[in-house]
Amino acid sequence: MTDYIAFYGSLMERANDPAAPSRTGLSRYISPCRIAGVLRDHGAYPGFFPPDNAPRGSVQSEIVKAELHELVGPEAFEIFDRYENYDPRNEAASLYVRRRIRLLAPEIEAWVYVSQLSPMDPRVPGDDWAAFRGGCL
User: Fold this and answer.
1) What are the residue boundaries of the Gamma-glutamylcyclotransferase AIG2-like domain, all occurrences included (predicted)?
2) Which among 74, 108, 98, 92 is positioned nearest to 11, based on CA atoms?
């Protein structure tokens, strides 16, 4: 079974973040994708909140712009999890948790890092981190 992952922040190709780990040998870019939810500005990086984790009273039909990648390297999760401060053995202490989410487009399931930081941080305009940060972090 092919594993897919949707990047919405500094791991996106179009974010051009020099601090992000190289995706070479770990994932292969497929296409732009769309995810239902809200993107929050946590300062140096964004946080994704799916509709069931969004703050009360926020619009539930927002669409986050992301990139779909196919996972190709066996160590991909280890490297991406470490970068996202996700420890599958201790989710309570993790900044993000990795979850399989059904994308809006294309209509497939992909892994997405869901923020455990404040859902009340400022909204990323247009729910597009790369455009918000000017494509160069």
Assistant:
1) 6-130
2) 98
Look at residues 79, 48, 53, 83 and name the one whose alpha carbon lies nearest to residue 64.
48
pLDDT in tens, 23-71: 999 999 999 999 999 999 999 999 999 987 655 555 455 899 999 999 9
Q: What DSSP string describes 46-108?
A: EEEE-GGGSPTTS-TT-EEEEEEEEE-STTHHHHHHHHTT--TT-GGG-SEEEEEEE-SBS-S
Helices (H) and strands (E) in the chain, counts: 2, 7
CATH number 3.40.50.300 is the correct assignment for the domain at 4-132:
no
Q: 5 in helix, strand or coil?
A: strand
- Residue-wise over 79-104: b if at least 16 C-beta within 10 A, else e? bbbebbebeeeeeeebebbbeebebe
User: One-letter amino acid identity for 35?
Assistant: I
Q: Mind listing the pLDDT tens digit for each residue in 116-125?
A: 999 999 999 9
Cα separation, 79 vs 128, in Å, equals 24
